[in-house]
Write a structure and sequence with these properties.
Oligomer: single chain
Structural class: mainly beta
Strand content: over 45%
Distance between the termini: 36 Å
Order of helices and strands: EEEEEEEEEEEEEEEE
Number of strands: 16
Shape: globular
Length: 256
């Protein structure tokens, strides 16, 4: 089933610890809050890979490219989950704009599911919208809705596939650009709620340590590290679910 966090398939996990993205305007992950695509003027591209519980059938891959300038920020993302008998693919185009202390973003997505040779491919369009507000120079609040109109994907006849309708609110405190403390709450109308908090600290130049935790039916501990070289950044995150095991995530990002 689609959705964020431990129930996620094709929707990629944000690269920030504990899957927190709604108020983090220093980074962008496609299919999360589109209003966070407000980084400085540049091209940015990244590729991400995630595996759940060391099972070869639970892999999600993400490729995204974005261009930011003073007028409008544009991003394209593509995520793939699946194996030979079942596949989920989602592609999206993001438009975001900053208005000083306020930013808004829209994203149009097309979700495709391959249900085997008998049913073939089924697809539908899914919108998402988000906003961020800098309450203080160091404090940002974010709001985000994925699939706000609670659309479903019709498979055949009366058979429908639930698509998550996720509403999120987040808060991020940044101290001197070396420490981020974030909290986020997500509610999926078709599933459950999730509460997360995380701390990311640039211990020394070019090295970042991440720790966090979220609750979604179970408490899940999260940790990670990041290395930066000029315009290149490498991230590795790990989540430990008490029942299901370890989720591993890695990303390579480049700014030009």
């Amino acid at each position: 089933r689609l959705g964020y966090s431990q129930v996620s398939n094709v929707l990629p996990t944000a690269i920030n610890v504990a899957n927190i993205q709604t108020a983090r305007t220093d980074s962008w992950t496609s299919f999360h809050n589109p209003a966070t695509l407000v980084q400085e003027d540049c091209w940015q591209m990244s590729t991400q890979y995630e595996n759940k519980y060391f099972l070869p059938s639970l892999n999600t891959a993400l490729l995204q490219v974005a261009y930011s300038n003073r007028y409008v920020n544009v991003g394209i993302g593509y995520s793939f989950f699946g194996y030979s008998k079942y596949q989920e693919m989602i592609a999206g185009i993001t438009l975001a704009r900053s208005f000083g202390r306020f930013s808004i973003g829209l994203q149009a997505n097309y979700l495709t599911i391959y249900c085997g040779d008998d049913l073939g491919y089924k697809g539908t369009f899914i919108p998402q919208v988000g906003a961020t507000v800098n309450i203080l120079p160091s404090l940002t609040i974010g709001l985000h809705a994925f699939n706000p109109f609670i659309q479903q994907l019709r498979i055949e006849g009366e058979i429908q596939r639930e698509v998550p309708a996720i509403y999120s609110i987040g808060l991020d405190y940044c101290w001197q650009d070396v420490l981020h403390w974030s909290v986020q709450a997500d509610y999926d109308v078709n599933n459950t709620y999730r509460i997360a908090t995380g701390l990311e600290w640039q211990v020394v130049e070019r090295f970042i340590v991440k720790v966090g935790v979220y609750y979604q039916q179970q408490f899940v501990g999260c940790m990670g590290v990041a290395l930066t070289w000029d315009k290149l950044r490498l991230d590795a995150n790990f989540d430990l679910h008490p029942l299901l095991g370890v989720t591993c995530q890695g990303r390579i990002g480049l700014k030009i």
